[in-house]
Amino acid sequence: MTKPEGQSVPKADFHEEALPHMDAVFRFALRLSGSQDQAEDLVQETFLRAFRSWDKYTPGTQCKSWLFTICRNVFLRQRERGQRHDEIVSENVDRSSGPFEVVNPVWVKAVKADPEGEFFDAIVDEAVLERIQELPEDYRTAVVLSDLEGFTYQEISEMTEVPVGTVKSRLFRGRRLLQSALYDYAVSMGYIKGAPDEA
Amino acid sequence: MSFFDRLRRLLGSSQKSRSRAGGNGKPSSDVDPITCMEALERVQGYLDGELDDVSHEEVTLHFSMCKRCYPHLKLEERFKELLHRSTEEEACPEHVKSQVLELLAQEAGKGG
Q1: Which residue does chain B place closest to A51, by CA atoms?
Q2: Do B100 and A143 make contact, defined as CB atoms within 8 angstroms?
Q3: Predicted complex ipTM
Q4: Which of A5, A190, A193, B8 could bridge to B35 as Cys pair (CB 3.0-4.6 Å)?
Q5: How many domains in chain B?
Q6: Topology of the domain covering A12-82
Q7: What's the average model confidence in pLDDT over A43-59?
Q8: Cβ of residue A152 closer than 8 Å to a chain B Cβ
Q9: Which architecture characterizes domain A95-194 according to CATH?
């Protein structure tokens, strides 16, 4: 039953509304942390915290994005505890100050050898996930939330508490890094012929 | 003059004539032509479904006409499909689901 917005939700509804998102929260936790063990801990902590603050959840809003926000906050807090502040700052420093090329240099190379992008079919899931894991955390989060989980720019902006423009920038740059890494992988595996200057 | 500047000039004239002549229903004949640079700048927003209707139509028109840009759209699309495909099968392990349920039961018991 749908409840009017602004009204708190009885705890009994938690199981019905929140638990169906456990697979998605686990995937997100796995992408954030890169570790199965840590992802399992994150899922437990996320649902426990969500249950405790269920009265703060606004009925009618997206439960999945609310859970992802909690999951990310738990992850960032855990990471802060295990990492020095200057390390976090240097990892998350905005690398978007320089100009970017509108024409994707990776696609310029790929188009010559495989304009239909058939090499993508040969790339195994593990290779993709490993390279997502290598992205800086802020880019990784944006790419995972958009491309893997299908959230809108506005939703990602609210979840990560940055302006929509920053979300777009992180997505753009994160995807470019990932595209370059996957192209290099495909060339190294012989799935696509490298450009002449790479031979 | 760069390749894209030359292409922009060429496309500018050919797209205008097509636009005036009216399309075949898709995309709308009312949209203004855009340059290759403008189309490529918007390609991610286009595939993410984040453009407004007019902008979406403009990009659709451009990619439907520009053989040079079309492969870039195709590759970007294949890339997004690959990312989506890579996690389709992942599910939370059953033992974690059981642990969560147990934790919630304990918590509910505490709070009353």
Answers
A1: B104
A2: no
A3: 0.81
A4: B8
A5: 1
A6: Rna Polymerase Sigma Factor; Chain: A (1.10.1740)
A7: 93
A8: yes
A9: Orthogonal Bundle (1.10)
CA distance A172 to A145: 13
Instruction: Say whether pLDDT at B12 is over 60.
Output: no
Structure tokens at A124: 């195994």
Residues on chain B touching A111 (C-beta within 8 angstroms): 71-72, 75
Contacts of B39 (CB under 8 A, 6+ apart): B58, B59, B62, B63, B66, B69
Return the percentage of chain B with pLDDT > 90, whole number. Answer: 58
What is d(CA B22, CA A187) in angstroms, rounded to the nearest whole number? Answer: 43
Full residue range of the structural domain in which residue B26 is found? 3-111
For A76-111, write each residue's pLDDT tens digit.
Answer: 998 887 765 555 555 554 455 455 688 899 999 999
Report the residue of B55, B66, B68, B90 to disrupt the A interface, i.e. the one with the largest count of A CBs within 10 Å: B90
Structural domain boundaries of chain A? 12-82, 95-194
Query: Confidence band (pLDDT; 50, 70, 90) for B109?
Result: confident
Distance of alpha carbon B8 from alpha carbon A102, whole angstroms: 14
Q: Which helix (H) or strand (E) holds A165?
A: helix A164-188
A149: Cβ contacts below 8 Å, ≥ 6 apart: A24, A27, A28, A64, A68
CA–CA separation, B84 and B86 (whole Å): 6
